Amino acid sequence: MAIQKTEKIWYNGKLIPWDDATIHVMSHVIHYGSSVFEGIRCYDPPAGPAIFRAQEHIQRLLDSAKVYRMDVPFNRDELVKAMLETVGHNGVWPCYVRPIIFRGYGDAGVSALTNPIEIYIVNYPWGKYLGHESDACDVCISSWTRLAPNTLPAMAKAGANYMNSQLIKMEALANGYVEGIALDVNGFVSEGSGENLFVVHRDRLITAPLGNSVLPGITRDSILQIARDMNIPIVEQMIPREMLYIADEAFFTGTAAEVTPIRTVDKIKVGKGMVGPITKALQKEFYAIVRGEKTDRYGWLTPVPVRAKQPVTV
How, if at all, do strands 179-183 and 137-141 pair? Predict the structure, then answer.
């Protein structure tokens, strides 16, 4: 579905018209993939629109920039304020928020340490990524391996990393699946093309550690926190491929995927091939918090100062 444009985009400290947010074809990012970014959801609870874990997302953005030696002229609080300003001005929510930092037009060399650092923040309507929350999805193990240590930093959310993700996703779609799961360089389960992965086996919630080329997901962290409070046993361990076939339950987490159950892996049913009780309980609690049906006891929602809401078609 085509992106539905909004009125303004935040650019290097000011709001500019959507159509003015352009870059030169010789910008470094186009040729070398030198960008870091975030994907963040703004929800619409009864108390008013609120951005989910705004501070944590922006901190990860700045951490990613630091790994790639990008000197960002704004701090975390300033960028959080910029997100709130953008969403509030455009009056569009619920929505997806995309802050991106990249190397712009200047030197043509690979390093381009002197190229200007450009920062944009965009928000636009976006619905479910992997289907309705009550649906479980069919996935496959990808033939493409996740990034190996000392190749590209898996802990940084960088644009270049997502070329790997595109291969995983396109292969899955071409073969009739909704998503692919990548293994790491040693053959252990890593993550989806854009999601972290959990399995449930014998009443334990299991997820791969960051050392398995796993992005430190904000939604992943949120589900771990909810699971601890629900007294669900948690294990962070390397996951053999076959664990996906014998698991009782499995699900993805991520900003786009939120909490998405997995029905089959390589056409083998996960458990009974339906949403399991632990997945359902975690999913229900997560949505209750972000939608304002329960108290935001973790302080995850940052309210957006608003003007009149604009019509949204999702």
Answer: parallel
Separation of alpha carbons 166 and 155, rounded Å? 18
- The proportion of the chain whose per-residue pLDDT surpasses 90, expressed as a percent, equals 91
Report, as an integer, the average pLDDT of 116-129.
92
CA angle 89, 122, 44 (to 5 degrees): 60
Residue ranges matching CATH 3.20.10.10 in the chain: 137-275
pLDDT digits (tens, 9 = 90+) for 190-221: 999 999 999 999 999 999 999 999 999 999 99
pLDDT at position 134: 62
Distances (CA, A) of 103 to 63, 73, 76, 109: 16, 13, 19, 12
Residue 262 has pLDDT above 70, yes or no: yes
Report domain 137-275's class.
alpha beta
Q: How far apart are CA 18 and CA 8, in angstroms?
A: 5
The CATH number of 8-127 is 3.30.470.10
Instruction: Please choose, from the candidates 212, 69, 237, 63, the residue with its C-alpha nearest in 3D space to the C-alpha of residue 149.
Output: 212
Which residue, 153, 82, 72, 79, is CA-closest to 117?
A: 72
Indicate which residues carry an active-site annotation: 157
